[in-house]
Structures are given as C-alpha cells and as structure tokens.
Amino acid sequence: MMLIRNDLQFVVIGLLCYFGQPGKGAEPLGSTEQEWGHVTVRRGAHMFWWLYYTTADVSNYTERPLIIWLQGGPGMPSSGYGNFMEIGPLDINFEKRNYSLIQDFNVLFIDNPVGVGYSHVDGNDTKTPKNNEEIGEDLFRFLKIFMNRKEDFQNVPLYIFGESYGGKMVVEFACQIAKKKKKHNKHKWNFKGIGLGNSYISPVEYIRSYAPLAHQLGLVDKQGFTRIDELAKQIEVLINKKDFEEAADVELTMMQTLVKEMPGVDVYNFNARTNISSEPSLFSYLGLFTERMNSVVKEYLGVAGNREWSFLNNDIYESLSKDLLKSVAKRVEFLLNNTDIKIIVYNGALDFLVNTAGTRLWIENLKWKSRDKWKEASQQPFSVDGYIEGHVKQVDNLLLYVIFRAGHSVPVDNMLAFKHMLMKELVYSELLTSILY
Ligand SMILES: *[C@@H]1O[C@H](CO)[C@@H](O)[C@H](O)[C@H]1NC(C)=O
Ligand SMILES: *[C@@H]1O[C@H](CO)[C@@H](O)[C@H](O)[C@H]1NC(C)=O
Ligand SMILES: *[C@@H]1O[C@H](CO)[C@@H](O)[C@H](O)[C@H]1NC(C)=O
Ligand SMILES: *[C@@H]1O[C@H](CO)[C@@H](O)[C@H](O)[C@H]1NC(C)=O
Ligand SMILES: *[C@@H]1O[C@H](CO)[C@@H](O)[C@H](O)[C@H]1NC(C)=O
Question: 182 — phi, psi (to 5°)?
C-alpha cells in the first residue's frame, strides 16, 4: 500500500476517538496453527515474523508453497493490513474470513523494514535501513536464519509477494537471494518466484500516466489535466536529474493536487464509493487497526512491550525519502537475465495511483532477451465460474495479470480472481511441470 501521508495525519486524529473498545478478546486469534517471533538480522535490529501453516487438506503442510507477504508504505507492517484486511484467516473484527490464503498456502508475514510494526531496533533509530538495498540485505539475513530454524521449509516452493511499495522491496530481496546463491551456491531453498501486486516499480511511469488517465476516465476537465500534467513533467525532469528528494517533494504536491482536482475519487480504486469527507476507504480502518494491534493482538502475541504499533511508520517513510521515486526496473531486468524464477506482476485495473497503464509501460521498457516477444504477444482473458475476471499475458517467466473489478488492493476487491491466479501459477502449473518432465 502506498500512502498519501498528508491525509494520514488528519485521519488519525479523526478516528482515534471514533473507535472505542477492542474486539472479542484473544481467544479466536488462536484457532489456526501459527507461530511468531523475532529474528535478529543485525546487532540490535529485530524483525518480527508471523507464520500461518496451511489448513489445506494435505497430509503435510510441506506439500503446499510458502508465501512471504510484504506490505508497502513504505512503513506499513504486514502483521496489520495484510493479515487482518487482505489474506489472513481472520478479519479485523476477528471473524473468520470467507477465503484466506492459508486455506491453500503457508503464509509468512514479515514486519519490514526493521522498525515497523512489531519489528524494532535497540536504542535510537540509526539502525533502521536507509535504502532499498539495505532492506533487501536485512530480508536476506532474515530468511537465512528462518530457514535454518525451520528446516522443513527448505524444500518447500517459496514465493515472495509484495504490494505497492512492498513490490520494490520484494525485487531487491529476490536479487539478494539470486546474488548470494550464485556466490555461495549453498542455500538449498526452493525459491520459485515473486508476486508484484500494484507495485511501484518505476514511479515515473505511473506519474506520467496520471493526467491522461484522469482525463480519459472523465475525472478532470482540460484545466485539471494541464495542472496534473505539468506537475508530472516537473517530477520527470527531477527524476532524470536524479534529484530524488526534490522529486519526492513535488510528488507530495501531486498527491494533494489529485485529491483537489478529483474530489470524491478514491485514488486506490477510482470506482469505489467515497465518504463525503473524500477520504479513501483505506483510511477508515486506520484507527481501528492502531487500537487493536496495540491491545488485543499485542497481548495475544506477547510481543512489543510498550512499543507502539503503527499503521504507517512515518520515521521509516522519511528515512527512505531519497529512495521513494527511484525505479527498480533494472533490478527486475537483473532477475530476468540471471534467474529462472517466475515473475508474476498483477495489477488491479481500477487503481489510479499505481495504474495499469504505468505497469504496462515499465514492463515494455524492460531490456531482456524476450523484449520483442513481449511486445508481440497478446493477452488472453481468464475466467472464474463463467465470468471473465481479467487478462493475462505471459512470455517466458514473466507474467502480467490485469485483474478486473479490483483497485490497489487486489485481495480485498477481487479475492476470487486473486485465488484463481495463485492456484494456477503456484499450484497447478507446478503439478503440470512435474508430470511433463
Ligand atoms: C461470505 O460468504 C457468505 C456466504 O456465502 C456471504 O453471504 C457473504 O457476503 C460473504 N462475505 C464476504 C465479505 O464476501
Ligand atoms: C544513536 O546511538 C549511537 C550509538 O549509541 C550514537 O553514537 C548516536 O549519537 C545516537 N544518535 C542520536 C541521534 O541520538
Ligand atoms: C512433513 O514433512 C517434513 C519434510 O519432509 C518432515 O520433516 C516432517 O516430519 C513431516 N511431518 C509429518 C507430520 O509427517
Ligand atoms: C464519513 O466518515 C466520517 C469520519 O470517518 C464519519 O463520521 C461519517 O459517518 C461518514 N459518513 C458517511 C455518510 O458514511
Ligand atoms: C539484461 O540483458 C539485456 C540483454 O538481453 C541487456 O540489454 C540489459 O542491460 C541487461 N540488464 C541487466 C540489469 O543486466
């Protein structure tokens, strides 16, 4: 999830007094087989993890893949939004979710980067990572220790998924695994692929698409188009000059401008109905999360002590300010050039912020051996229960799923399609491969 921070402050104040008592108590949290803890990834830097074993009808959980799930922000812990809002067994009211990914997969949430959620550093914040590479290194160290402790998972197909800004971290995480695997060739993990959900891989492509998208959708008039387009051009110039901090400042103005020019439009899903306050619906959960993650959930887990869990850690966001608008498209190229992992890009078609137009642009611009093939290949519709839920295009190990009726958060908006994609790419295609070869 990528957050519009200037709106955040407002909502935090607005909702803290709005939601009162925590939910039903700790008991229902324990009904699924799960484990959690901290891994010390560097001296004084402790990363929180929360593992759910699959409830699939298999004789051993090792028969189903392990999905690592990373949230974006940057600064959003996946113990909160990802677990209770998107894919975990319970929703934020601690009621059973109709469909949770743990019904088919083992799921591991990590509060990343160190410093967010229940992860923490000793002493002052000089130990929090300052760029995407440091984040990737921490995640690699985490995985090494985790796999040593949980040997059963070493042969289990491993997929790493990230949403929004989390996708950038996933790409770097995967590069670190690939690099270190090449160097030492001793990590026996069964690393199979990554999932990039509405991921902010190349910010400039998304920003460049704002004005035409808003105009084509009929959300702005000509003046609105011009105002958004001028800002986009400014940001592009700054990014090209590698002045990333200044670019991030103008991008903040861009966010305010989008909200101003398109009142009532939820930038995370332009088809969503918004409250008269014009806040994206995502923010309406902020107070509830902060309250519950700091009471019932914290008590159940017995972690974090007096440390405050927050929906978005502003300090982490600030400390990554030079990195926010950097592209990691070259790192995706590195993965395509040097590994055979599956790269599953998926985009909710109704997301304005990390729009599908931008996703198509950075994919088309990738330099790799099948660049021309990609341009020529055509997308195919895919259906679930007789309805077309989106389009998919695949060339070699690179896939793009465009998911209909979904915005920034695909599992929230169209779980059916999301589940279909995961079963096809992570379970059935594996079975097919093992039969064919
Ligand atoms: C969950 O499933 C029930 C029964 O099929 C349905 O009535 C309900 O609307 C579903 N809830 C959600 C959030 O999809
Ligand atoms: C943080 O801690 C380190 C080591 O203890 C110290 O050298 C540094 O001055 C501290 N920084 C701040 C901003 O307090
Ligand atoms: C499940 O599989 C793992 C790895 O093959 C093995 O170590 C473990 O004993 C198995 N567990 C059960 C309950 O069979
Ligand atoms: C809009 O949101 C505010 C603050 O979250 C809330 O008090 C109000 O009831 C909401 N209005 C509607 C029509 O849902
Ligand atoms: C990947 O390979 C292509 C050639 O197929 C090359 O042009 C590109 O620079 C490479 N990218 C990286 C990051 O290695």
Answer: -60, -45
